[in-house]
Structures are given as C-alpha cells and as structure tokens.
Design a protein that fits this description.
elongated, single chain, four-stranded antiparallel sheet, five-stranded antiparallel sheet, alpha+beta, about 170 residues
Length: about 170
C-alpha cells in the first residue's frame, strides 16, 4: 500500500465503486434475480427471463387424458419461449419433440410450485433438432422446455407427450 496516498483518491475510488455497483444492481441483478426492472434495460437484454414467475394458466381443457397428445409450438426467429406442464411430485411425462431439422437450444427444467425466489432445476440442456425421453418430477410445480431459436426464421416444434399433468400452456 502506498504511504503517500491521500484520502482524496480513496474517496474518488470509493464513490466510483459505489456508483458502478449501483448501476450493476439496477440493470443486471434486480432484473435477473428478482424481475424488478426499473430502467427497462434488463428486459431489453433478456435478463428478466431468468426471474419471471412460473405462472402457467390452469385449465381443465388441456389436462392429461392419459393418451398421447401432439402439440405444435412456433418459436419466433431470434427469440426464446417456454412451454410448461403443471405436474404433481413424482408424476411422469414421456416426450418426444422434433423440428424440421433446425437445431434449437433447449433447457428442460422444473420450477417448484409457489416458489418466488426464481429457483429452477434443469434436467437437460443441449442444442438439437429432436429429443426423446421421459422424466419423473422431483417436486410439484411447472415443468417443461425453454426453446431458443437463434435463426432468422420461425421454427415449428412438434411436441408429443403422454403423462400425468393437470394442464399445459405456453408461458406468457
């Protein structure tokens, strides 16, 4: 440490650090962690997707009938969407999804029912044009996919499912 350092440079460094931390808090941390975006920059940067509540509308119209169901989802160009199923703990879902051959980034994950912290647990993260498998939910809540299309054209996903869920929908 320099012995000749006066308090003036230390004060400038402290004030600069505090301002930088405040800016990071406002445009990065609050939107990403708490879905609080006072400047709107967090939404423009796509940071609010990490903290949006898991609110998939419940409707008896799209509850599981025990039969295979085919769902068509369009992922807009250069955007990401989430498609979720409301499921109880230890419920099972068999799935298969495919595109026209265009690879999509996807994250199969679950969010606990009633959680407000933004916690989620990923089961599979990859980039592919198709996938098939099954999972058993470790907790009650919304479970499903985040698909991200990094191309300049919309991509349609054919999602085929069979399992125990009370509803499913595109997350708004």
């Amino acid at each position: 440490m320099q012995e000749n350092m006066t308090t003036q440079p230390l004060m400038k460094a402290t004030i600069f650090s505090a301002l930088l931390a405040s800016v990071a808090l406002l445009i990065i941390i609050l939107p990403a962690e708490y879905n609080i975006d006072p400047t709107g920059v967090g939404r423009k940067l796509g940071l609010t997707v990490f903290s949006e509540p898991a609110s998939v509308p419940v409707s008896a119209d799209n509850a599981s009938t025990g039969e295979r169901e085919t769902i068509l989802i369009t992922v807009p160009a250069n955007k990401g969407i989430e498609y979720k199923f409301i499921m109880n703990q230890y419920a099972k879902l068999e799935y298969e999804w495919l595109t026209d051959g265009t690879a999509l980034y996807h994250d199969l994950h679950g969010e606990p029912e009633g959680d407000t912290t933004g916690y989620y647990e990923s089961f599979t993260i990859a980039t592919a044009s198709e996938m098939k498998g099954s999972f058993t939910t470790p907790f009650a809540g919304s479970h499903g996919w985040y698909f991200k299309n990094e191309t300049d054209a919309p991509v349609q996903v054919q999602l085929i499912v069979k399992g125990d869920y009370s509803s499913h929908a595109l997350k708004q």
